[in-house]
Amino acid sequence: QSALTQPPSASGSPGQSVTISCTGTRSDIGDHNSVSWYQCHPGKAPKLVIYEVSKRPSGVPDRFSASKSGNTASLTVSGLQPEDEADYYCSSYTGSNSLIFGGGTRVTVL
Amino acid sequence: QVQLVQSGGGVVQSGKSLRLSCAASGFVFSNYGMHWVRQAPGRGLEWLALIWFDGNVQHYADSVKGRFTVSRDNSKSTLFLHIASLRGDDSATYYCGRDMWGTPHSYFYGLDVWGQGTTVTVSS
User: Fold this and answer.
1) Count of A–B CB contacts within 8 Å?
2) Over chain A, what is the mean pLDDT?
């Protein structure tokens, strides 16, 4: 199964918003409310920032929000801060006892 | 605090085997499903395997089925990944991760705790 489709890059100035899309199929994103988003800084372990499409773990700022429509999920980071510069990956349950990740999006804070 | 501490990576010859470990602390390890994920240099995250809380069920990505084996020792709160017949494209940073829900019905809905990662380099 191919990776979920994410744009390779996105950028915004401090204080602005950036939105990242994650496109899959009906079998994965479309049929399951299992989309998660992970923030990855170089040399560090991934950090869960969104689970079950739009829920934020405790400790994640409410600047991070997410949604899903059909086979596409989206992550929005509002009020961009320098520490938000990172790679972001979406993931989804595939419906067949496996997990699939997106190709990743590098967010640059200009 | 809740943490996963990994060990076992390194430089290994092509064709050899390797076992990675992931020691859990700060939570009841036996209550959670556990995953392995890897990231090759310059590449994205790749899910590898899940093992149920009790170790009785394992699921694998098609790309590693037959060569990778996930196991756990709940008495020692430790997760393992055995990799056989190592190949160059197995060179990556390997992460263990905790599935955030304790019930198999909800597995794959998020990995909320991650190990620090361990690097495997396969040499020819």
Assistant:
1) 64
2) 96
